[in-house]
Amino acid sequence: MSCSAPVGTKDQKRVLVVDDDASIRELLSTAFEDDGYEVVPAINGADALSVCERWRPDVIVLDLMMPVMDGWTFAKRLHERDEIPIVVLSAANDLARHGKTIGAADVVGKPFDLDQLLPKVARAAGGV
């Protein structure tokens, strides 16, 4: 089972923002939309897996520490059915090791700078 094929503008990259913090989801959604992405937010890993059943992103921005289903579990379940690049955005200690463990394309620590995050997401999505 894989995420559904993209629907919509072929040139517009799609990003799934997975974070339990509403203010971060809103900030990232606005920043990515302003940068030309189609964005869908998810509040945790379980919500993100549900989104992937009907919408396939080009890249996923993933927090690790969330209730219901954390980022580690989400990444494991996602990789069982699809290979979508993940950029980890987290305050977790030893972020580089955690990113490697889940096969992340890149990692960004919280607190974060959009000028650092946006190019990493663009590279992971295949845009740069």
How would you characterize the overall build of this protein?
The chain has 128 residues and is of the alpha/beta class. It has one domain (14-124): Rossmann fold (3-Layer(aba) Sandwich). 38% of the residues lie in helices and 18% in strands. The protein is built from 5 helices and 5 strands; from the N terminus they run βαβαβαβαβα. It has helices at 22-34, 45-52, 71-79, 95-102, 114-124; strands spanning 14-18, 38-42, 59-62, 86-90, 106-109. Strands 2-1-3-4-5 form a 5-stranded parallel sheet, with helices on both faces. Helix 2 (45-52) runs parallel beside helix 3. The longest helix is centred in the first third of the chain and has 13 residues, at 22-34. The chain starts with 13 loop residues before the first strand and ends with a helix. Mean pLDDT is 91; it is low at 1-8.
